[in-house]
Design a protein that fits this description.
The structure is a homodimer.
Chain A (H helix, E strand, L loop, with lengths): L1 E6 L23 H11 L19 H11 L3 E5 L10 E3 L17 H14 L6 E6 L3 H12 L14 H15 L10 H8 L2 H16 L3 E4 L2 H12 L6 E6 H4 L6 H7 L2 E6 L9 H7 L9 H6 L5 H18 L13
Amino acid sequence: MRLVLVTGTTRTATIDGISAAGASPDLVAHTPSSDAEIVVYGEPVASPVTPVSPTGCPTPAAVTRAVVERLDLPVTVVDAGLAEPTAAPTVSVDASPGGDLRSAAAVPDAADVFEAGRAYGRALPTDDPILLGESVPGGTTTALGVLTALGERATVSSSLPDNPLERKRAVVAEGLDASGLTAGGAAGDPTAAVRAMGDPVLAAGAGIARGALETGTPLTLAGGTQLLALAALLRHDGVESPLSLATTSFLLDDESAAVAALADSLDVDVRATDPGFDAVDHPATDAYCAGEAKEGVGMGGALSLVADADADMASVRERFVAIADRLNPSQPADDPAVTR
Amino acid sequence: MRLVLVTGTTRTATIDGISAAGASPDLVAHTPSSDAEIVVYGEPVASPVTPVSPTGCPTPAAVTRAVVERLDLPVTVVDAGLAEPTAAPTVSVDASPGGDLRSAAAVPDAADVFEAGRAYGRALPTDDPILLGESVPGGTTTALGVLTALGERATVSSSLPDNPLERKRAVVAEGLDASGLTAGGAAGDPTAAVRAMGDPVLAAGAGIARGALETGTPLTLAGGTQLLALAALLRHDGVESPLSLATTSFLLDDESAAVAALADSLDVDVRATDPGFDAVDHPATDAYCAGEAKEGVGMGGALSLVADADADMASVRERFVAIADRLNPSQPADDPAVTR
């Protein structure tokens, strides 16, 4: 089993009110570079920022890292348009940072990035199953853009407790206009949908998934609505094979995202894992329980690998709390290790 | 513990009679890209070649991979001048492939590559010890060049059973001439030594080691005479702290390399691990016992992590044989799993 983490950026993230992935807009471009370092090394290494939400909720990368440490899970980071340096080792798909989806073409080189991703996906050893995750701030908005352009259910989640879905829909409407598209106007043409409304992570990720499916490498989509937008791209590319999504209970509980209905409409099996954070009294776990972050950076997929035994998940929780304290030393808990 | 594998190329490898790292000279540029994929994925992935010696001895990457699988050892590949694509995730130090050491400057950007490596070495988490290994065909010749320029003992090993040391010394003499240097002429100036006579892997690796030592990250040099040349660069850079080398028994047994004497002169502790390949009757293990390959791609460092218990090393041997068969399916053994 290997976590393939596709990371990149889109100017869409800088639109006011869109993303919580990064405490301030000028730092948000660093988030995926830092997330990759946290998953690979356990902490930001060369990146000058530690991704936290405006209220201090640590990035889902910290949860994924806890599982990586617990299970010695190998990780491969794909650079699908990073805008800032990372010291994490990366596989290149020759992608550039994505543009604002309100422009005519958000991902001008979507076709090339898809093909580079596909070549990588085809090359992966077929006897080693992959979890495909993402880190791209603003990614739920580009996911909404792609779902809308394809004519699928236009519902996505958010890294904010109150999903600014109306704001996202207005942005998407503007993007469709700028691209000369209507809702459903790119049905059956996934490359056109990503080119006009998506981000380079969706282009690369859809290509990797397509390539892995072509050679028979077992694949699990590890994430939420962004991975469902990726599944929609595969369906519109003619992929009829079974697809499965491993996500978090936090995301499945987000009524605004209506994940189960979207997955059902795309014929994607969903498995949600509850990390049991309500058993821990710590600002980091409390933030997740309060509805922040919810999913991302492969979190749900990583958690799905943890054995059902409560002792295993308790160990992941303990590691997560330790990592969260390391990432955010200004907010130590009084008693960080209270687990049931 | 993390294996940091510094990979790159030098035109020095294309000099006739220098290297066994790759069955034919036109394929040798692919060797480090393929080695990286074998260590990360267990087989060449995007690379079109499988590195074997002219007689079919599999690359030491296969041994390192066996340990990576057995111990779930994390690996970070550094691209220090790869000439061919790799699907292994890589950290960049902005290095270009190295030139022929018989030119005036083999590594024109040695100072920049050293500094980029140093920044990466400084950034690594200090609580996670690193093994520093290399893959660069022709690397023992550039190591000899650097040792000579620094005025250290001019002895190195070879990936060939009969070390073409006189050939290497003639090449080095030509390189010194072309650079306007004499033996020992770059003493105390490691950058000048690498620039004139080295390769980009030595520049990046010395930088990474220097950076790790500066921040107190525990460091083990994982390899043979190339890593001792790197140690010489550190000594000439003023590093006085203890240095240790983890290598293979094959290398220590190579009298032509005189590894123990070279290590002693550089005040480097040496630990050699014997993988017990004489217990296995298989073309791959036989080739190592016959003196091919010996070391490289972090092999000795990886083996040093295997517990002394014979059962653990037997398990590594079994994995190595399975990997060797996968890499070289045309040469299956009659009985590949005979271990004592």
